[in-house]
Amino acid sequence: MNRPKIFWSTFAAAAIILIITGIIWRQADIKRMADENYLKTGQLIRRDYFENPEEAVAEIKNTVVDGHMHLIDRIRSDSKTIAYVGSSRSSWLLSGFLHKITVVGVHDLNTDGHSTRGNLIAVYAQSISSRAVAFGAIAFLSIMTLAAAFVKRENIPHLFSEPNQPCQRSRRSK
Amino acid sequence: MMVPESKKSRHAGWPRMNLPLVIFVIAIVVRAVFLLAMLFFHEGSSPEVMFPDTTKYIDAADFLFGRNETGEYQLLLVGPGYPVFLGLLMTIFGQSYSIVLMIQIVLSAATAACLAAVARLLYNNRLLAFLTGLIAALSLTSISLAAALLSDTLLLFLFVFSVYLCFRGIQEDRRTLLTVAGLLGGLSILVRSVALFLPPLVIIFAFLAPASWRSPSRRTFINSVLVAAIMILIPLVWAGRNVARHDIFTVAETGPGAARLFLAGKVLHTARERPPHEYRAFRDSLYAATVPNIESGRYKKLHDETRAFIFSTIQKYPGLFLRTYLATVLGNATAISALHNIQLPHLANLFDRFDRNFNPGHKNPLILLLTLIGSVLLIRKNARPTLMLLGIIICFAAASGVTFGQGSRIYFPAQTAWPIMVAASFIFFYDLGGLILRSLTILAKRPAR
Hints:
The complex is a heterodimer of chains A (174) and B (449).
Chain A lengths: L2 H33 L2 H4 L1 E8 L2 H16 L1 E9 L2 E7 L9 E9 L13 E11 L2 H19 L6 H4 L14
Antiparallel strand pairs in A: 1-5, 2-3, 3-4, 4-5
Chain B lengths: L18 H23 L10 H13 L7 H7 L2 H13 L3 H27 L2 H13 L1 H7 L5 H21 L2 H17 L6 H11 L8 H30 L7 H18 L7 H17 L3 H18 L1 H17 L4 H5 L4 H11 L7 H16 L1 H18 L17 H28 L4
Helix pairs in contact in B: 1-5, 1-6, 2-3, 2-4, 5-6, 5-8, 6-20, 8-9, 9-11, 10-11, 10-19, 12-13, 12-14, 12-15, 14-15, 15-19, 18-19, 18-20
């Protein structure tokens, strides 16, 4: 195989590997946020008694969740707990942080329109640094390092040409 | 004797000009505008109370020059370099900090110019040298530190000039240059003890010197050992003074103190699985435990306790300690400047909007990435000097791992080397863009079959 073929094959392989890694990385990142224990690292941001828990949960979702993060997932771990996981921006890849809002009731949090009794509800907020930046950085670094290592010297004339010679393009690229 | 580049030579498209002078002028104009904006529009406090560390330096300077009796611990903490600089200027010009800041912007601009000279000396490429100087001249960290009463600008000035003279001394086999390099390197250690790794690096430089530079290798090695010896002897005098006065063999106690409060503190806090927002209170409690020793002047006891605290944390949580240390190094290497938010509060909204969009959490890995890409390119161009520069970056990155929370200030001394690599990346992107455009043009012009 000649040099351009090796270069483009390596480049394509790297791109495919990075896309697959990115999908796996995103899922792992969201799971990492979802698994954070709100009792250990969460900050209590609200605690109130609500006559109508159904409306309360909807209001919390509108104000706290939708107002502060881009919702990715809603997790119902048990009948008394609802967790909302989201990112700081609409795209995970551009997000610096992941957020989780956990709504915990003393009684069941009925959100199916059949709530019958009042409930004491606490809301916990958690944030972690997203690993999207790290992924983006590794992806950019991999692609550019490959290019920096493989592009011919004569195609980088401003860096590799000798000081006494004018910058010359490679014969092939003219 | 090797001459780095013929005076008559010129790179196509780059007319002959005094590169360091051009960079110096650009750098000084930018810094002067920043300083004026800070002094005229600052609605809050004056320069001496803008940053907590400034108070330490002023107290240490006053103690050293007999103006107070309370700065003994601060002097032990920060070392004598910057307090002497501050004290001398205040003795000459009175209590005017603006003069100190003006001198600092000259030193900072001279550093940018010297960096351009280092790039040209190592790689013999005018465009690379110009971009290196320009990056250093326009570095926001460098600009804001030049307008702050902090030791960083003086440290980088002494360090960069020492490295430059060291390279030239080895290249031209001139002992005078090497002696001056040794003196400046020794002084840089007195300014900040983080520069202590320079002496061993100088000996490594002798082995890595390109073949075209080398005077007889034995002579180069002897020269580098002499330079390293000068660099060590100067701070050794101060360490001797600390032994006599406090029974502590140290140049400055900042490093271990920071390692106790920040690194070891963070490890313990993480090990106890406490919420991240409680870390500050935990760190303050660690500091409060040291106050009785500081106030009663039991510095030796504090020194021993600090080391024992760090080592016991390492022994108890070795894996967590290493992980926290590496995360701190990475955090510092990707931290972006934050000092300008304090210096120019009337532009805080603008900076904040920019940071929220481009630097989430005041972190951005772009410079680190460009440094790594640039290092690959420069290794292809000339491996030995690139390894020297990487050595400097790695040492400063490693030293930065003991503390965090000060933005890009901690990793700032690595600016001795990274602008050269970032400049190489910029040139590469420019040429790569041209290559892609040319390839696309050729493809577009190819007749369809």
